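#structure-requests
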Amino acid sequence: MQPHKLQSLSTALMSISLFYLVAFLSIFFSLLVIFSKNPIHSVLYLIITFFTFTVHYILLNAQFLAIVNFIVYMGAIMVLFLFVLMLLNLDEDSEPMKSNILKMAGLVAGLCLLITLVGSMKSLHMSDPVILKNPDLGLVKNLGKVLFSEFLLPFEISSILLLTAMVGAVLLAKREPKTA
């Protein structure tokens, strides 16, 4: 075999093995989110799961999605979930009792999800891994070009909507001075 073909083959095998390792970790930590008894541990496992998703985005050459996932989900939303759970101070005494009807509904929903997953796996052809035809697909530069050319009007309308929401939030939070 030629050296450059051997090097590209080893690089491809390494990236595929890295993908499967990160996919295994994603599934493992998402199962820990579900089966963890402590809600704070569950949120921490969810943060790790979102980190594995960030690694997936990097492997798919989608740097913008990786950064947004890292900052927004791991940095803001999950920390907010963690603070809310800590402020609620959940313990066994304050937990609501789960009825048998609720347990049966969860079992039926889980079985429906399992049937859907098995059906989708049967229809999937596992012959070749996903290879991007355009390696510049997820770059921020290309997103900016599309956003400021084809989608300029919706982008500007959404910015006006966000500005209006900020002004409305400030006006709602502003307290009226007391009149004596």
